[in-house]
Amino acid sequence: MISIQKIRDDKSSVAKELSKKDKSISLDNIVKSDSELRDLTKKLNDLQSEQNKQSKEIGKLKSKKSADKSVFEDLKKLSNTIKELENEQRTKSQQLRDMLLQIPNMPHKSVPIGESPIDNVISKECSSKKELKFKPKSHVDIVKDLDLIDFEIGAKISGTGFPLYKGNGALLERALINFMIDYNLKNYDYTEIFPPFLVKPGSANTTGQLPKFGEDMYHIEKDDLYLIPTAEVPLTNIHKDEILNLSDLPKYYLAYSGCFRREAGSYGKDTRGLLRVHQFNKVELVKFVHPKDSYSELESLTKQAAKILDMLDLDYRIVELCSGDLSFAASKCYDLEVWAPGEKKWLEVSSCSNFEDFQARRGNIKFRDENNKINYVHTLNGSGLATPRVLAALLETHQTKDGSISIPSSLQPYTGLAEIK
RNA sequence: GGAGGCGUGGCAGAGCGGUUGAAUGCACUGGUCUUGAAAACCAGCAAGGGUGCAAGCCCUUCGUAGGUUCGAAUCCUACCGCCUCCGCCA
Fold first, then answer.
1. Across all strands, nucleotide nearest A48 (CA–C1')
2. Contact yes or no for A354/A378 (Cβ under 8 A)
3. Separation of CA A371 and C1' B24 in angstroms?
4. Which of A217, A223, A300, A375 is most buried by its number of CB atoms within 10 A?
5. Is the CB atom of residue A35 positioned under 7 angstroms from any atom of strand B?
6. Which three-class secondary structure state does DSSP give residue A294?
7. Pairing mode of beta strands A365-368, A345-354
8. Is the Cβ atom of A102 within 7 Å of strand B at any atom?
9. Strand B contacts in A 162-201 (CB under 7 A)
């Protein structure tokens, strides 16, 4: 959520920044609604003040008899007027908040301006691309030949997009998850969390999935709970409605979770194999930091995520998203894309974003700064990493001519296997 | 799922219709004392909004949302959360 104060004080520059992301955004209704609300609030405050004053007078007398009847009649009228205005105020402030929640975050000044993925900037490409001396198979064929994943049975049980991992496929998936968790825990200062996979609407609102993108999540209507699309949602809400101490920052959390996405609107895209599925596994990294540090934290977060791809001997590149390709809540974002030689595609396996105070405002997450002033924290998150596409790239990269898979050495302690055949 | 109890400031814990934004203790911050620290003593210490150069002043908030009343932390209703007991269950 963008600060209403900021919009009020400098509407044109906020609008200008927002247009880099989405040209169709208008702040006019918000400014109008804000000014109406403030007029109303002023009026209401005066009446409340009057009411308090007179009620206290009566209190001092301690006896109803000593007060004139007409005083009570007047006060009753005043009381009713106040109630009406309070109702109006409640409605208006809710309306204003609803509008504000629809406004995306502003891109950081350093973000390249652009409209679509074409304008993204490839900031680092891993050059040591391994050339295979044979025609590489797609992971779809590999998992079938080696009996690692059964898409048909998954579809029979749950529908398309719910892969069923099997035998060494299940082992490999589990190994990847454990490797990623352990690697991050060992090398950085994360606290491991095992979060709930179902969350309340308010939690999804903090991170920005709601109110605009409810259609992308699975919703349990009976209990009004959402299946998480990423562990970012529960992790970011750990400190909802809290004021952290300066000494608490930075706070780093890591969690494995299943991730559930309806992928509404993307039917027909990447339907084959592991590239786009409704349920997948991911290790997520979330940081709560001092605002002055958030951009250096974004750099280190991105490097941390990329290191995992190094460890798995995969080729990847880091992509700096342009303004138009940034997600709703992000100020700046780097994508990690891994090379899949069978698919001959770069696959997005991580998104590392700085949300600045956008999520912190929505979730009311603050800290006491060095001057004892209360301020919003900055939040960041990054996947470290999402498994299905990593698995696809891993199988395609480490396949051999005879059809077997050689397991990268970093993963072998977790699989207990050097190869799968 | 049934019965009961409870939700007050960072924590503990008073208050149960009227100058209560809220006693007291702990924690925290500043000061006195001390070579330094501890102890002791003194002082300060909720958040949000509005207004003002500022000091300040005004409004809101005692789980959440409604209601009763001139006036609610205090009374009523619903919801949420926590605890205890019973039932069911991985």
1. B59
2. yes
3. 29
4. A217
5. no
6. helix
7. unpaired
8. no
9. none
Instruction: Per-residue pLDDT tens, chain A, 421 aa: give them.
Output: 999 999 998 999 999 999 999 999 999 999 999 999 999 999 999 999 999 998 888 877 765 455 567 778 888 888 999 999 998 998 899 899 999 999 999 999 999 999 999 999 998 776 566 778 899 999 999 999 999 999 999 999 999 999 999 999 999 999 999 999 999 999 999 999 999 999 989 999 999 999 899 999 999 888 888 999 999 999 999 999 888 888 888 999 999 999 999 987 666 667 788 999 999 999 999 999 999 999 999 999 999 999 999 999 999 999 999 999 999 999 999 999 999 999 999 999 999 999 999 999 999 999 888 877 888 999 999 998 999 999 999 999 999 999 999 999 999 999 999 999 8
Q: Are A258 and A233 in contact (CB under 8 A)?
A: no
Domain chopping of chain A, boundaries: 28-101, 117-420
Strand B contact nucleotides, protein CB < 7 Å: 10, 18-19, 47-51, 58-60, 66-67, 69-71
Q: Is the CB of A81 under 7 A from strand B?
A: no
Q: What is the DSSP string of A194-260?
A: ---SEE-HHHHHHHT-TTTTGGGS-EETTTTEEE-SSTHHHHHGGGTTEEE-GGG-SEEEEEEEEEE
**Residue A110 CB lies within 7 Å of the nucleic strand B:** no
A398 touches strand B (CB under 7 A): no
Residue pair A388/A273 in contact by the 8 Å Cβ criterion: no
Topology of the domain covering A117-420: BirA Bifunctional Protein; domain 2 (3.30.930)
Nucleotide B17: closest residue by CA–C1'? A59
**Is any atom of strand B within 7 angstroms of residue A158's beta carbon?**
no
Going A7 to A11 to A17 to A21, the CA torsion angle's sign is positive
Reported ipTM: the value is 0.87
